Amino acid sequence: MKKNLNRARSQSWDAVAHWYAGWTGTNGSRYHRTLAVPLLLELLAPKRGEHIADLGCGPGILAPPIAERGAGFVGVDLSPRLIADARRHHGRVGRFLVGDVTRLPRHADLPEAGFDAACFLLSIQDINPLGEAMTSAARLLKPGGRLAIVMLHPCFRVPRQSGWGWDEGRGLKFRRLDSYLTPLAVPMQSHEAGTTRSYHRPLGAYAEALAAAGLALTGIREVSDLPAQGESKADRRAAGEFPLFLGLRAVKLE
Ligand SMILES: C[S@@+](CC[C@H](N)C(=O)[O-])C[C@H]1O[C@@H](n2cnc3c(N)ncnc32)[C@H](O)[C@@H]1O
């Protein structure tokens, strides 16, 4: 685990591409379909004729719902394998490019100030440095353009530093948090040949990075996990109290 994240650069998910694309399937995982994608679409509010960039698009599961709303879609990801997968399944409804969103390549499909909206769908916590990713997003947006971000809630879901506990005396399921303010680069469970890294930053770091990139925060949504079958009352209460996802909406200042 690293304490100073400033110089760590995020990695492509190529080594785990087969596993990840299998987990999401063509239309997204259960979490994508039930929570993350509906939240992102609510924040992004794509409209007919708009141009939308998906940063860290992975296998491109966001392209079909954006295309259904009549908007153009460009997805960018560092993983050539995931981009190949995205093109195979969604190439008819979107364009997909291999690229690092912390230092975007010059490309005719990524015109500066060429997009009405941009998003990070469950990708911002896998991307570092954060400030460079936000600057790239701002650079792609037209003045007044929207940015939507959906991520695991950084106040309650800190990889390896948070979890559930049971208070026997009170008969209460509680959320335990062992650290929060310290930014962390956390190696995640290996799948296939690879390990990925997730970057924890406190909520204030996101607000600061948005402001530094000239993006004004205009909305926050906190979403609970869906109830699972056979859950106890204590499980349901705890799941309802501590949100799983955080959604942020920002606008590029004119
Ligand atoms: C958890 S996956 C999310 C993918 C997709 N948005 C989804 O919801 O299925 C995170 C993605 O971020 C990508 N990524 C990490 N660092 C990146 C960077 N610097 N530039 C572009 N993509 C990056 C990885 O390759 C991976 O596909």
Automatic annotation (TrEMBL):
Gene Ontology biological process terms, A to Z:
methylation
Residue stretches making up the Methyltransferase type domain: 54-149
Q: Which Pfam families match?
A: Methyltransf_11
Q: Which UniProt keywords apply?
A: Methyltransferase, Transferase
SUPFAM superfamilies from the xrefs? S-adenosyl-L-methionine-dependent methyltransferases (SSF53335)
InterPro entries tied to this protein: Methyltransf_11, SAM-dependent_MTases_sf
> Could you tell me one molecular function GO term of this UniProt entry?
methyltransferase activity
Q: Which PANTHER family match?
A: JUVENILE HORMONE ACID O-METHYLTRANSFERASE, METHYLTRANSFERASE
User: What's the protein name?
Assistant: Class I SAM-dependent methyltransferase
